[in-house]
Amino acid sequence: xxxxxxxxxxxxxxxxxxxxxxxxxxxxxxxxxxxxxxxxxxxxxxxxxxxxxxxxxxxxxxxxxxxxxxxxxxxxxxxxxxxxxxxxxxxxxxxxxxxxxxxxxxxxxxxxxxxxxxxxxxxxxxxxxxxxxxxxxxxxxxxxxxxxxxxxxxxxxxxxxxxxxxxxxxxxxxxxxxxxxxxxxxxxxxxxxxxxxxxxxxxxxxxxxxxxxxxxxxxxxxxxxxxxxxxxxxxxxxxxxxxxxxxxxxxxxxxxxxxxxxxxxxxxxxxxxxxxxxxxxxxxxxxxxxxxxxxxxxxxxxxxxxxxxxxxxxxxxxxxxxxxxxxxxxxxxxxxxxxxxxxxxxxxxxxxxxxxxxxxxxxxxxxxxxxxxxxxxxxxxxxxxxxxxxxxxxxxxxxxxxxxxxxxxxxxxxxxxxxxxxxxxxxxxxxxxxxxxxxxxxxxxxxxxxxxxxxxxxxxxxxxxxxxxxxxxxxxxxxxxxxxxxxxxxxxxxxxxxxxxxxxxxxxxxxxxxxxxxxxxxxxxxxxxxxxxxxxxxxxxxxxxxxxxxxxxxxxxxxxxxxxxxxxxxxxxxxxxxxxxxx
Length: 583
Ligand code: CA
Known about the structure:
This protein is mainly beta. It has four helices and 40 strands. It has a single domain, classed as Methanol Dehydrogenase, Chain A, CATH 2.140.10. The longest helix is centred in the first third of the chain and has 9 residues, at about 1-10. Residues about 1-25 have low confidence and may be disordered.
């Protein structure tokens, strides 16, 4: 009895008479595959590679959540704060959490004491478009791995914080950077790149997570070559992506954007990784006729070969910076594996995860000016021509093209903040924003390291009383089941639990828990700065914990125009909070 108890406390199976030796075993593929259902740890961005952000835990539930109190809080310190968009990871008694300016901390999960910190030395001249954020790390074996603002991957020893390997992904002086959490699936480290506003070329890379050695790379803009790499790092060509000039006449595909800046998800039942791609570059769409594949798309990659299995373009020939990077979250609907995507362009898409066929598409915001809907037969948007900013060569306003008012604003009906899916309520919980923009096009030419937009803009709120709207979305009917309005734009992610709860944060500083069925607010806590990061939950011993990072910033204060002015009273910060039920 005693031995059994100790063994179960240690998490060791009692399979033989040999003395139980407890190794600080590393994170394995099998553990990552079970991340969504094993509540003892949080090993991946998305709380499972499918990205559902659903926890089976029930100790904190609709009845008990009112007793949720802080267990500890940890400050990221430093003079520089800015946006904190990171999702913590939990493993082996430690929390691994990244901060702004490419910092990462290991914290004792029980006490909140700092175990180590790694602060990446950033060069002058990094070019993050949208604040100095980082969204989280990945765990593999004894390593914790994250991307930096100067486009490097850093792998650290989980126990010591010492660098084990380091790889340069690309040239920061050309506008490349990294802000997404890496994805680990089937023994591969899968990463994207940021920099779509500087004419980079988006791609997905697969590496050996233990060494950083490249396995394959797959560009996301038609015309570019993919590569496979052998053990010595020697590259062999692995096929051109698409057909050169098919959807990109001329030369602009060479600097075509399609940045994979939010990373990806992976579904073991399809064997596919799903990466979203950003805007085609430049923003001025009149310079690049055609669909501009595979920009503003979801791209499904066979992770063994790195080949594109299917793609679905949410905004063909984008002219509004409607990056299609939003996470593709797989789930079951009518016995089939689907993917849900709340796109920056204002439409929610339900797509067959296996073959990319569109099943359903409907608006999840109230005002959309660029298309009247999505044709479910062809999968293409029904464009509203008046919604596109005018051609500057037509010179309606001097060197500027005609200004149009467009909604959603380019910061999106949804941006980087990940949604959650609850298989019990069968609802997606989507942090949406209602805003629009004046946008116009200008002439532009590519210059390495320069902004490559050819557009000007000012964002405006659409309503007096709110911009953000936390919405429960039924993927089958397209109905909004409930919504909670929020004064400031929502910019944090969402988590849902088998305790019947939805957790999300607000720029006003609150972490909130609401009833997953009704949207009724059941609990809130003021974290001291704006929450622009997704919460997580796990169980240690018999206690369920909830954690969220706090620290206002991100793209809104930098690019939000009239909206930025409206929320300029919000204070910066940088900390992580952990909660549990009061005894
Ligand atoms: Ca963009």
